[in-house]
Amino acid sequence: MNEDVQLTFFDVPHFKFISSDESTVSDLSDDRVYEVLNSELLANLMNCGEITAEEHCKHWLIGFNTIGPYIEVIFRDFVEKSS
User: Fold this and answer.
1) How wide is the angle at C-alpha 36 spanned by C-alphas 30 and 41, nearest 5°?
2) Of 33, 64, 65, 72, whose CB is crowded by the most CB atoms within 10 A?
């Protein structure tokens, strides 16, 4: 939609930039936000004690259109601000 949006994430135990040619994102559209359901990464973070189930964290992959990579983020909450 070519709309600038600012996302501010809170309680972020993990984030990572992923190139668009990595296998985890190669079939995804680069202009969308994806929620990863039944996330193995979330389960691993809980198993090692980094987060708890009570925190209700989410796992998203966010595409940045034509500028390249995705960001993978685990977070508890966020605020969205549109321009």
Assistant:
1) 115
2) 72
- H helices of the chain, in order, are 40-47
Q: Which domain holds residue 73?
A: 15-77
pTM for this one?
A: 0.82
The span from the CA of 34 to the CA of 36, in Å, is 6
Residue 30 lies in a domain: yes
The candidate with the shortest Cα–Cα distance to 79, out of 4, 3, 10, 1, is 10
Please report where in the chains the tokens 């259109």 appear, as a residue. 65
Q: Which SS3 state, helix, strand or coil, does residue 71 take?
A: strand
Q: How far apart are CA 52 and CA 63, in angstroms?
A: 27
Residue 3 maps to a domain: no
Residue 57 has pLDDT above 80, yes or no: yes
